[in-house]
Amino acid sequence: MVSIPEYYEGKNVLLTGATGFLGKVLLEKLLRSCPKVNSVYVLVRQKAGQTPQERVEEVISCKLFDRLRDENPDFREKIIAINSELTQPELALSEEDKEVIIDSTNIIFHCAATVRFNENLRDAVQLNVIATQQLILLAQQMKNLEVFMHVSTAYAYCNRKHIDEVVYPPPVDPKKLIDSLEWMDDGLVNDITPKLIGDRPNTYIYTKALAEYVVQQEGAKLNVAIVRPSIVGASWKEPFPGWIDNFNGPSGLFIAAGKGILRTMRASNNALADLVPVDVVVNMSLAAAWYSGVNRPRNIMVYNCTTGSTNPFHWGEVEYHVTSTFKRNPLEQAFRRPNVNLTSNHLLYHYWIAVSHKAPALLYDTYLRMTGRSPSILFLFCSLNHILVQLHFSKIFCEFITYCYILISTLQHHGSKTTWTMYVKKNCTSVKKIVSNTFLDLLSRLRNIRYGFNTILVILIWRIFIARSQMARNIWYFVVSLCYKFLSYFRASSTMRY
Ligand SMILES: NC(=O)c1ccc[n+]([C@@H]2O[C@H](COP(=O)([O-])OP(=O)(O)OC[C@H]3O[C@@H](n4cnc5c(N)ncnc54)[C@H](OP(=O)(O)O)[C@@H]3O)[C@@H](O)[C@H]2O)c1
């Protein structure tokens, strides 16, 4: 059987989402490990006044590509940036670009998606479902297409207890939903969204489930594979350990814990933290496309790219390693000593959120308002709470059945299991390096809240105590009279001296 680099030799690969977290790593790894790949068409949209070409230049000039630059300085020539807005009809491709793509693409990696959990349903459907449908239509016209690789999420069916490596029936027929969205106004769409998504936690998960069905149904004549990563974190080994470029997901939590602003999380200590390093996801995607390309399996291949069942790591362990790493190697200008309280008790969790997250934020924002500045701290805590809510669903339900051993055994790989302790430590040191200065400024201001907030809390509790208990009142009067006597004595003795 041909090896993976041999399979990609001379192939033209089309990649969506190349400017995103996963897409960048995939682009780098493909060009580094398969140096004889012919070309990579990256579908990129114009954004913030930058052309797709400028955006690609920016991506490949980042640190992630340093190793590739050393090993293969000419890699740039293989990347062809193509202007494409995936939410537009026919992906907004020009006729010439479309022709080139149709004539020459051999393998497609579809990574682009909106990963915003609270995206409104119309936009989530537009990108995650309709754009996928459009890409499949394009793929069907391709003359030399060998594999269509779709990146989904392991939580697409998180409403189920056991998640096998199959495409389950969708919550609704995607075609019917798309038709209905055409005549509904935004207000109506927002009103029915909770009913539609039902027992799925958000529109992202819901639309990713619909996209899988679209890929299965409409890509029936194509050679399709689906990779379903769980929670994607910093790189484990490649191109170097600890690569991360944003604070979404687990890295945001690590930094918040290190700064002492994350005080509580809703999880039990032994809930699975199904983290998966980004380079593992990328390796699996490249290997899965190779497997389908070489073996041409009759059925759609689905891979749960998760760690919970093969190499479990629990939220209690994450909490321990993150806080102990940051206690030993503290972040600058931390708000409090790192200490995260995991609780599965609903009431306790909301109590700690109110007391340790929201109240200090409100207090400081009031201070900012009173001093004529714009409030910003509550926004920071809301973003943090948003990540917590996002991750919550991942901690309770699912057990993933992972047969990616098919791939592992085919590759004759006996690789070591990810050493989570080292992984989390490396991740913490990496996030430490990329915390921006603005973030640091904000946090340094936050530190003062703690003293103010604790003082007010003590006064309030004491006031309530005095109002309710005779004994507390007696102690209070005793302390006040003692202070008074001490002051009188002090005054009398100082007058006597003169
Ligand atoms: N990150 C995770 O933890 C995780 C977990 C499970 C599954 N996944 C899946 O992995 C894939 C990649 O996720 P990610 O974390 O890399 O997301 P990401 O960083 O947000 O990247 C999303 C990519 O999609 C592109 N995109 C979005 N809207 C577009 C549009 N209208 N036209 C063209 N391109 C558009 C973005 O381009 P711009 O730069 O132009 O916005 C970006 O390149 C997704 O399918 C996601 O569902 C991710």
Automatic annotation (TrEMBL):
Enzyme class: oxidoreductase
Lipid metabolism recorded as keyword: yes
Pfam families in the cross-refs: NAD_binding_4
Keyword Lipid metabolism part of the UniProt annotation: yes
This protein's name: Fatty acyl-CoA reductase
GO terms for MF: alcohol-forming long-chain fatty acyl-CoA reductase activity; alcohol-forming very long-chain fatty acyl-CoA reductase activity
Keywords, sorted A to Z: Lipid biosynthesis, Lipid metabolism, Membrane, NADP, Oxidoreductase, Peroxisome, Transmembrane, Transmembrane helix
Protein family (similarity comment): Belongs to the fatty acyl-CoA reductase family.
Entry EC no(s): 1.2.1.84
